[in-house]
Amino acid sequence: MEKIISIHYACSDLNGGSLSCVTAISLYEIETQKSVSFSIAEAKERLGMDVSEAILERDVLERFFDFAHTYENSLWIHWHMSSSLYGFEALVERYGVLSGVYFDITFRSINLPDRLYTRYQKRCMIYPKMVSFLDKNEFDTTLILYGEEEAKAYQKGDFDAIKISSLLKAKAFGEIFSVTLLDHKWRTPCSLNYSRLIWIALCVIGSIVAILYFKIGN
Question: What is the band of 153 on the pLDDT scale with cuts at 50, 70, 90?
Fold first, then answer.
């Protein structure tokens, strides 16, 4: 049976690309519900506080690719990791910049927001955004960092916060993918509007029926 693994990674700035430092890579195995993390926070504990950031980052990427090679036939679930600036290709390129080694590895993957949009577009034409989708489905986002918040945490050297945020996102993606396929319980960005429209329509129909009944009765 193939493994299905959701993934998220954090980097030092919003632009991504080969010059952006990879600060944490988090994985969530959907079948076992087990989280796996490769982060600068962990690398510091293992290699020491005085080690350069480049060595710490290279360790993060090396451990991730060791894992990825072991599970090369897996299906990877991600949120917009499809470009050369932010994605699997960017991780390969970044490790190459740091080590001179460019891995030849293929990731069979699904972009989760595309899957969600395909599933729900008939009744919701809004393309899912990460922040609104997690909030709509009542995930605890207290410790999740988005965009500029991740970049600011990097500037402060708060690698523990980045690691925790990345782990929570990877787990959320895995849970969303799993439940979306099984029982379709997730709320879309316009679920509440959709429900309200139904309620309004029923009220209107009820009013029309009542008026017709009153007229016929008289």
Answer: very high
Query: Max alpha carbon distance in the chain (Å)?
Result: 90
Phi, psi of 205 (to 5 degrees): -60, -40
Tell me the pLDDT tens digit for each residue of 37-55.
999 999 999 998 899 999 9
Q: Which residues pair with 11 in a beta bridge?
A: 22
β-strand 4-11 against 22-29: which pairing, if any?
Answer: antiparallel
Best CA proximity match to 153, nearest among 161, 164, 165: 161
Q: Is the confidence at residue 29, as pLDDT, over 80?
A: yes
**Lookup: tokens for 69:** 């090679």
Q: How confident is the model at residue 2 (pLDDT cuts 50, 70, 90)?
A: confident
User: Which residues pair with residue 77 across a beta bridge?
Assistant: 6, 110
User: Roughly how many angstroms between the first and final C-alpha of the chain, as a whole number?
Assistant: 69
The whole-angstrom separation of Cα 89 and Cα 21 is 14
Domain 4-187, CATH 1.20.1250.20 — does that match? Answer: no
